[in-house]
C-alpha cells in the first residue's frame, strides 16, 4: 500500500517488480489541480521533466521519473455521479480497488476490469489496462471525458468525440498532460459467475471461437511444456455479493497456494532452472475445477504477490489459433526455463491512435517470468514471434519498441505527435525513455 512518508523520504523510485529503478530529484504530492499546475509550470521553467508514477505497476519504464516524480495519492475519490446516465467523474489518483465499493453505493459498476486492481485510474487509462471479453474494450474505452493539465500548466477538459485529441487521449501514456479527473461511462451494478475448468489444448482450440462469443468473459492459462489449459468463463448473473465463506476460502487459497506453495516452487525454479518443466506440469495438474459468484469487482481481481516480469501483445483475433499452435510446438521442449502460464484474453477493437488492438478484434497474450530468473531469451523469442503475427505490445509491459518500430505499428502516430507538440511544447513529459520512442524530428519529417 502507498505510504506518504515513504514517498516523501524516498531516495530511489522503483516499480512493483523492481526491474525499473530511478533517482528522482524530488517526489511531490499535489493537493489540487491548481497545485499541480504550479508544479508543472515550475518544472517547465527549469527545463526539467515530470512523471506521474501511479502505483508503479508497469513493467516497462513508462512511469519512471528522470527529474520530478509526482503521485496523485491526495487526489482521489468521486467528484460527481449521474445515476440516470451512469456517467461518473473520478479524481485520477483513485485506485481501481477503491472504485467498485464507491460505485456500488449508487447501483453502478465498471463495465469491465482486469485481474489486477492496484493501479490508479489515471495509470490504467493512460496505458490501456484491459480485462477480457470480445465485445468489451479496455478501461481507456470506458472514458467519455478527460480533465488534464498540459505541459504549460494549463487545465483542459475534453469530451470524447471522433477527433484527433480524443484519439490521442484514449491511450496517451501521460505525454499530453497529467490526467487529474476522468469521466467514465458505467453500467448498472451486476454480479458475475466465474467457472474454472481444465482442458487440453487441441480441445480448447477447437472450442475457442465459439466460447469467446458465448461467454461475456473468457480467459485461458496455458502451461508451457504441457497440453493443459485452465479455462475461466465469467458471465453476468442477478446481483449477489460474494459470501463470507467464499471470501475466506479465496483468502486462504491466495495465502497458501500463491503466497506459499507457488512462491516456494518459483524459488526452486530460480535456484534450479532445470526443475521448471516439472513445476509447470505440477501447476497444470493443479488447475482447479470450481465456481464462485459475487459482485463484479469482487470476482475480477486476482491477488498477485509472487513477483514476476511480464510481456504482453495484442494480435488480430484471426491469428490466435495459429499463434497458439506455434507457441505449443516451441515450448513442448521447454527451451526457456519458464513455469508461469501464458495468459490469453480477448478485446474488441478500439480506435485510439496508440491502441494495441489497431481497431480490430484482438487476442492478448501475456508472458511471465519469475523475478530473479533470466527473462531475456524468453522475451526475445516472444518479441520475434509477435512480429510474425502483427503483434502490438502493451506499453506497460516489457517490450523492445523503438522509434522505427513505432512508425510501422501505429500508422496514426504522426497525428498523435502533432497533439503532443501542441500540449507539451517544452517536453515536460518527454523522459529519456520516451525519447527513444518519440522524437520531434520524426514528428516533423512525417508531417511534411
Automatic annotation (TrEMBL):
Tell me the leader sequence span.
none
Supply the PROSITE patterns for this chain.
FAD_PCMH
Query: Where in the numbering of this chain does the FAD-binding PCMH-type domain appear?
Result: 20-189
Report the Pfam families cross-referenced here.
ALO, FAD_binding_4
Q: Which UniProt keywords apply?
A: Flavoprotein, Oxidoreductase
Q: Which GO terms describe its cellular component?
A: membrane
| GO MF annotation terms | D-arabinono-1,4-lactone oxidase activity; FAD binding
Gene3D superfamilies found in the cross-reference section:
3.30.465.10, 3.30.70.2520, Uridine Diphospho-n-acetylenolpyruvylglucosamine Reductase, domain 2
Q: PANTHER family given for it? A: D-ARABINONO-1,4-LACTONE OXIDASE, L-GULONOLACTONE OXIDASE
Q: What is this protein called?
A: L-gulonolactone oxidase
Q: Which organism is it from?
A: Viridibacillus arenosi FSL R5-213
Amino acid at each position: 500500500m502507498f505510504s506518504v512518508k515513504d514517498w516523501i523520504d524516498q531516495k530511489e523510485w522503483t516499480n512493483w517488480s523492481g526491474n525499473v529503478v530511478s533517482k528522482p530529484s524530488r517526489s511531490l504530492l499535489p493537493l489540487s489541480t491548481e497545485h499541480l499546475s504550479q508544479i508543472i509550470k515550475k518544472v517547465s521553467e527549469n527545463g526539467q521533466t515530470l512523471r506521474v508514477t501511479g502505483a508503479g505497476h508497469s513493467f516497462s519504464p513508462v512511469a519512471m521519473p528522470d527529474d520530478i516524480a509526482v503521485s496523485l495519492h491526495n487526489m482521489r475519490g468521486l467528484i460527481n455521479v449521474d445515476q440516470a446516465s451512469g456517467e461518473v467523474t473520478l479524481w485520477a489518483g483513485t485506485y481501481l480497488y477503491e472504485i467498485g465499493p464507491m460505485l456500488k453505493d449508487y447501483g453502478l459498476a465498471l463495465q469491465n476490469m482486469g485481474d489486477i486492481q492496484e493501479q490508479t485510474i489515471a495509470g490504467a487509462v493512460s496505458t490501456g489496462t484491459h480485462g477480457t471479453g470480445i465485445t468489451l474494450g479496455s478501461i481507456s474505452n470506458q472514458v467519455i471525458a478527460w480533465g488534464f493539465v498540459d505541459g504549460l500548466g494549463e487545465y483542459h477538459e475534453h469530451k470524447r468525440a471522433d477527433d484527433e485529441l480524443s484519439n490521442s487521449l484514449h491511450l496517451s501514456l501521460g505525454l499530453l498532460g497529467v490526467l487529474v479527473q476522468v469521466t467514465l461511462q458505467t453500467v448498472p451494478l451486476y454480479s458475475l459467475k466465474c467457472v474454472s475448468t481444465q482442458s487440453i489444448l487441441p480441445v480448447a482450440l477447437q472450442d475457442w471461437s465459439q466460447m469467446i462469443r458465448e461467454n461475456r468473459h473468457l480467459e485461458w492459462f496455458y502451461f508451457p511444456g504441457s497440453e493443459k489449459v485452465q479455462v475461466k468463463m465469467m458471465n453476468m448473473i442477478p446481483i449477489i455479493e460474494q459470501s463470507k465463506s467464499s471470501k475466506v476460502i479465496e483468502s486462504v487459497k491466495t495465502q497458501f497456494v500463491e503466497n506459499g506453495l507457488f512462491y516456494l516452487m518459483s524459488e526452486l525454479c530460480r535456484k534450479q532452472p532445470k526443475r521448471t518443466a516439472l513445476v509447470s506440469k505440477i501447476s497444470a495438474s493443479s488447475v482447479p475445477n470450481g465456481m464462485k459468484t459475487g459482485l463484479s469487482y469482487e470476482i475480477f481481481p486476482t491477488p498477485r504477490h509472487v513477483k514476476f516480469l511480464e510481456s504482453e501483445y495484442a494480435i488480430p483475433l484471426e491469428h490466435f489459433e495459429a499463434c497458439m499452435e506455434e507457441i505449443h510446438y516451441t515450448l513442448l521442449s521447454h527451451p526457456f526455463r519458464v513455469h508461469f502460464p501464458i495468459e490469453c484474453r480477448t478485446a474488441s477493437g478500439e480506435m485510439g491512435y496508440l491502441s494495441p488492438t489497431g481497431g480490430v478484434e484482438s487476442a492478448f497474450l501475456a508472458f511471465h517470468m519469475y523475478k530473479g530468473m533470466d527473462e531475456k531469451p524468453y522475451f526475445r523469442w516472444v518479441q520475434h514471434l509477435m512480429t510474425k503475427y502483427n503483434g502490438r505490445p502493451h506499453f506497460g509491459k516489457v517490450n523492445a519498441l523503438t522509434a522505427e518500430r513505432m512508425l510501422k505499428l501505429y500508422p496514426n502516430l504522426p497525428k498523435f505527435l502533432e497533439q503532443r507538440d501542441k500540449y507539451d511544447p517544452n517536453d515536460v513529459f518527454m523522459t529519456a525513455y520516451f525519447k527513444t520512442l518519440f522524437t520531434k524530428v520524426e514528428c516533423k519529417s512525417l508531417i511534411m
